Amino acid sequence: MGKQPILKGSEILAQSLIREGAEAMFGIPGGVVLPFYDSLVHRAKEMRHILPRQEQGGGFAADGYARVSGKPAIALGTSGPGATNLLTCMANSMLDSIPVIYITGQVMEELIGTDAFQETDIIGMSISIVKHSYLVTKAEDISRVVKEAFYLAKTGRPGPVHIDFIKDVWGKKVPYIDNPIMDLPGYDISINKFSDLDILSLNHLFEKDGLRPVIIAGHGVELSQAEQALIRFAEKHHFPVVNTLLGLGTFPQNHSLWCGMLGMHGDAVANYVVDKSNLIIGVGCRFDDRITGNLKAFTKGKTFIHIDIDPSEIHKNIAIHVPLVGNALDILDRANELLDDHDYPVWREEIGFLKEKYGFLDFTFCSKPKQGCLSQARLIDLLSKETGGNSIICSDVGRHQMWVARFYRFNQTRSHISSGGLGTMGYGLPAAIGAKIACPDREVWAVCGDGGFKMNIQELCTLAENHLDVNVAIMEDKAYGMVYQWQNLLFEQNIAYSRFTNPDFIKLADAFGIPAWKAFTMKEAQQAVQQSRKTKGPSLVVFEVDPSENVFPMVYPNTPLGEQKLQEDHL
Amino acid sequence: MNKSIQSFHVVIRVKNEIGVLTRIVMLLRKYRINIRSLQIYPIDRKEEFSDMFMELIAQRPHLDLVIAKLGRLIPVIEIKQGKSHFIEDR
Q1: What is the pTM of this model?
Q2: For A398-455, how does the pLDDT look when each residue is reduced to its tens digit (9 = 90+)?
Q3: Is A361 left (phi over 0), alpha (psi -120 to 50) or beta?
Q4: DSSP for A125-182, written as a single string
Q5: DSSP 3-state assignment of A451?
Q6: Which of A62, A299, A354, A470 could form a cystine bridge with A73, CB 3.0-4.6 A?
Q7: Looking at the partner chain, which of A186, A188, A316 has a beta carbon nearest the beta carbon of B65?
Q8: What contacts A3, CB < 8 A, 6 or more positions away?
């Protein structure tokens, strides 16, 4: 064993992060983390530091970075408000299983519990919204804790890990251990709990008469890199495939077996196929309320196979007949080896009829925009065609998010970046910053509503300062669009505080030195998209859109998928 | 589905570290499970591990989910379920 260098705690943290492969950190310096920044600044060549303008922007940027790269990212805030500003980001990463290391500073040990300046019990607050958390009080623990944090974040079901460092650890000099021994006796690393017999039992199930199977492919397919295995599995048995919101891009959208996105604002075909099916194979999905609609109707007469890495997801929302716990790639690979081929021609024919009747990518279910306003659905279709479906699209949350999901044709995995579980407005712009830093060679668009955009509008400054080639699209309808739609449809048009005024976004962009265009017609929209794409560095396009354009189909809350409302007036 | 309120005995073996009880209690709170009694003591000489004996008041389906979720907490080593008895029918 070589001689262990004696380093300060702050140097050990920087060294440990770099050792674990961290390439980018999104953080804001402040009081108790200043000694760490004093050490970090000397390591700028090894780990890029991006200064967001609010910690939440940094947290979402780290989240976006991790989604696109598949590697853990780091977000940092100081104690007190710096730390609490990261809480929404932690919850966001937790619900979507994103590996982010959240680092916060804590006041000195002697001040803990005294209500000291910028003291909060941030570990107490974050416990239920992270995979695991640490309060580090000894410099000797830093190297091991960082190693464990990265390991926990990226293995098994990925998720965020929070490390809170008390100020005392930064200055203390201790031996640096480059390869510390992890101490995680409770962490079960044997993720595959299935046997060949479990898989072989599926043959019997797949051979039943009158079977109408469908695969629901979720985010877990992407996380386990099981895309190719899923294609082979679906083709082997002629299973139709629908995607969840975060599963989009994991199955080719031009494939004959693909039936769209299911759920509250999913494709009509997908919802009908799932509603009419009697065997559901969920792969890396959670069966959450946004995809099931009314749970009783969703489960009635259906058999469920659930492939998931997290045993606590099995039976969580619905009773599962065949649970297969493990890595989706391993399970599907093994199933492709062991199982016979199957085909369901009658079911295929029925699905073909549904596709012919309801189709994809047509605007039958979209209302016509008012004079002088653009249609968001048509704009997303335009963006998809102009970019060839090859961009990374970081959507914010709201109606535009649903149109991105339905009208952008994603050619690649890890390209549809969206806050799925938490549904956090303000996510799109900072996530696009993180995505661009993770993949500088790919085209990146932030597609935002005007409500969500303003929730992290300050990150335009980060974008401009780093001269990141991110295209920002703002759908300006002067409304919290989804809220406005619900108030119109479900609250008898009682519009309560969902309309607002905006600043002049063009002048605002100009103030940041960002070129910007505004479009009122489809022709102007096309020109603006093309100009934005040609621009090196950040650019912004504002689309004047119609607030009365509602997202349809819509499955009303607690309604069966089969009773989805297709448009304003039923077909 | 059995919706009866029952009393359940569980033994949770944990890595003995600051905050481990909070992690467990917060999870139980999330699923609205009440703790009727609780006893904790270390099981090894170095006091690295502890056993938590808990009597919980819960509905059966909730408890199964919570046991699965408890198993995902990093400091939790093992969970054993003991006897249960009926409290109240709803």
Answers
A1: 0.95
A2: 999 999 999 999 999 999 999 999 999 999 999 999 999 999 999 999 999 999 999 9
A3: left
A4: HHGGGSSEEEEE--GGGHHHHHHHHHHHHHSSS---EEEEEEGGGTT-EEEPPSSPPP
A5: helix
A6: A62
A7: A316
A8: none
